[in-house]
Predict the 3D structure of the following.
Amino acid sequence: MNYLKTLLIGGILGSMTGVYAAPPATALTLPQAIAYALENNPELTIIEARLGQAQDQLQLAMAANYPQVKLGVSYQYSNNPAEAFAMLISQRRLNFAGTDFNHPGGVENFRPQVTATYSLYRGGQDSHLREAAQLGTQAAELEQAAVRNRLVNHISAAYYAHLAAAEAHQVSQRSVTAVQSELEQSQLRYQAGTVLKSDVLSLQVQVAEAKEAEIHAANAIEMALTMLKTLLGISADEPLALKEALAQALPKPPEKFTELLAQAMAQHPELQAAQKRVAIAEQQLAAAKGAYLPRADAYVSYGANSKDVDFSTNRDNVSIGVQVEVDVFNGFATQAKVKKAEHEVTAAQEAARQSRLQVENGLKSAQLNLQEALNRADVATVSVQAAEEALRLVNEQRQAGVVTVTRYIEAEVARDKAHARQISARFDALRADAELKQAIGFWQ
C-alpha cells in the first residue's frame, strides 16, 4: 500500500525508519517539515507499534493451523498396588514368580515422552479468529494511513499559520513605524502651534493600537511554531526555523460536494478502517457461536517407562487417539460470549456510521471554508487596491493641506487592515485546501 501520495507542494518524503533524527539544523520547507514529522512524530511510532501487535495477533491465530508438540518427562512413586502393578507392566518387568500383588512395595517410574496434538474441528472458531486477525492487520494499516492523513493536514495548517502570522507581523511593524513617525512629527507641529492637541492624542491611540496588533502577531508566530514542534516531535526548547516560500498561488475552487463525497467514500482510510472493524466484529461473533458445536482433537504420544532415567526402545510405547467433546452446560458462558460479540458488532456498525457522518460533515465544512476563503481573497484583493488608491489620494490632499493628519493615518490604517485581510484570506484558503484533502483521504 502507498502510504503517502504526492504532497500539495511536492517533494519526495522519506519512509518511516523508527529512528529519531536530530533536530533540523536548517530552515524547513513544508515538504521537508512533513517528511521530518513522518519520521519523528510519536503518534506514528505508537500506531506502528499497534500494527506490529496486529501482525503478532495474526501469527498467534495462525498457530491453530499447526500441530502442537510438547516434550516432557514425568516421575512417579507409588506403593498403591494398582498403580504399582500398572507401572511394572509399563516398564515391562512384571514377574509373576515371587511377586506379592497385594504388597508390591514402592515402585518408581520415569517417563520421557513426546506428545503431539492437532485440532481437527472447533466449530469453525479457528478459521473465524484467523480471518478476524487478518482483518485486524488490514485495519491497523488503514489506521496508520489515517494518522498520516491527519498529520500532514495539521502540519500544513500550522505551517501556513506561521507564514500568515509572519506576514501580518511585518504589516503591523510597518504600521507602528508609520504611525510613530507621524506622532513625532505632529508633536513637533503641536509645539509650533500648527496642530491641535486632539490630533496628537488620536495618534497616540493609533500607536497603541498598532503596537497591540504587533504583539498579537508576534505571539501568533510563536504559537504556530510551538504547534509545529509538537507535530514534528521536537521539544519546545529546541530550535526550529522555517523557510518562507515564495508567494503561493491560491488553490482551485472545490469540486461539487457529490464528487468530493464519492472520492472520500472510495479512499478515506478512516472509513475503510471502520468497515474493517465491523467485519472483525462479525468474525468474532461467528467464532463465539462456534463454541456451541462439538470439538475434535487428534493426539499421539510416544515415550518409555522405566525405573530410572535411562531410555530404552525395548520399553517404548505409543498412544494414538481422537477426542470429541461438546459443552452441555458451562454456566451460560457461551451464551454470554455470543451476546457480548453481538453487542460488539452493533457498536462497530454504529461507529462506522458515525465515522461516515463525521467525514461527510468535515468534507462539507472544508468545502465551504475553501470557497469562503477564495471569495474573501477576491474581495480582499479589490479592497487592497481601493485602500492603496485612497491612501494615495489622501496623501496628496494632506500635502496640499486639505485634510488633517488624522485622516491620513486613518487611510494608512485602512490600507494596512486591507493587507492583513488579504494575507488572512490567502492563507486560510491554503489551509482549507489542505483540510479538504484530508477530508477526502488524499494523504495516505
